[in-house]
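Structure first, sequence second, as always.
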């Protein structure tokens, strides 16, 4: 079965045409788009379908798009884009037999089942319980979350907007960060901090709080950077810019704490999966213990969290894999 799979985020959109059969998925055509360069999704999709037909003509039998935002009544409003996507309109306009919209972290959850062990880096082995609940969390342009519950013979993936819950500081420095942001924002959620823009906000807080100051070279690089968060991360990983290193450390403390919050909420005995675009780029720092210490700092429930496996998803196509698998199942009338 030939399907269309999509991973639509505030920064980038990935689309694939995939042939799915009992042996697995075979990519036919893929393109990556700068989401911000398009006024709406329909224009982007038209360009993609035109290129795909030129490369490999054939009828698309089903489509599934993972979107960074809530889905209500087959419509999705992208959280960090001025886009509204309507599945029914796409079916009609592009003559697609079936189109489904799912939250991007639902797509990641479905994709996890299609990955190999080499697609993960383990931060905590834990004591996994077969078919136990699983939690998903991942920072990128925003902060995505989801949960996976075993039903029948597969994990059903439930969407969540838990990244938008109120930020709860756990240290005096984090309390100062909250006060700093509360003076500048109407409301401070975890996504305001555990995201690319959040990393920049942490850096600005540390600059204002002192005593560290960025070097002249770092300040100049940051001012001219197209992606300030990536610039901060790069200098932190190089180990030659103390304020960048402290920025990243505070970011990982808060990231780990919220991952632990979600793990307790779900009782994720089946594992916690760290996805999103940021984690693979920071894998060495994620393995240094800062993240896991914050994850397990949950007295009197630390025993529970320390028994939960924690893994980083390294395959950047996990969302597309999940969307393709769901499209194929729905196209065949099997549901999810």
């Amino acid at each position: 079965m030939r399907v269309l799979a999509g991973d639509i985020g505030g920064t980038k959109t990935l689309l694939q045409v995939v042939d799915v059969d009992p042996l697995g998925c075979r990519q036919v055509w893929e393109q990556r788009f700068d989401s911000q360069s398009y006024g709406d999704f329909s224009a982007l999709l038209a360009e993609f379908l035109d290129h795909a037909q030129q490369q490999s003509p054939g009828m698309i039998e089903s489509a599934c798009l993972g979107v960074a935002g809530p889905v209500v009544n087959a419509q999705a409003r992208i959280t960090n884009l001025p886009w509204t996507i309507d599945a029914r309109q796409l079916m009609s306009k592009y003559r697609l037999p079936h189109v489904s919209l799912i939250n991007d972290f639902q797509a990641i959850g479905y994709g996890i089942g299609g990955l190999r062990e080499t697609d993960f880096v383990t931060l905590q082995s834990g004591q996994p319980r077969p078919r136990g609940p699983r939690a998903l969390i991942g920072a990128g342009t925003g902060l995505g979350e989801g949960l996976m519950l075993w039903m029948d013979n597969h994990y059903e993936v439930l969407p969540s907007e838990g990244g938008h819950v109120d930020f709860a500081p756990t240290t005096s420095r984090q309390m100062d960060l909250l006060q700093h942001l509360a003076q500048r924002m109407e409301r401070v959620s975890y996504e305001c901090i555990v995201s690319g823009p959040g990393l920049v906000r942490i850096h600005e807080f540390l600059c204002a709080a002192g005593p560290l100051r960025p070097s002249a070279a770092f300040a100049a690089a940051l001012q001219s950077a197209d992606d300030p968060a990536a610039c901060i991360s790069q200098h932190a990983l190089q180990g030659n810019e103390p304020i960048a290193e402290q920025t990243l450390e505070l970011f990982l403390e808060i990231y780990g704490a919220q991952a632990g919050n979600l793990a307790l909420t779900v009782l994720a005995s089946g594992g916690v999966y760290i996805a999103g675009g940021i984690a693979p780029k920071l894998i060495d720092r994620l393995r240094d213990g800062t993240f896991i210490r914050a994850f397990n700092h949950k007295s009197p429930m630390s025993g529970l969290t320390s028994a939960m496996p924690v893994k980083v998803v390294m395959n950047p196509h996990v969302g597309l894999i999940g969307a393709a698998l769901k499209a194929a199942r729905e196209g065949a009338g099997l549901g999810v």
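Margin note: The mean pLDDT is 93.
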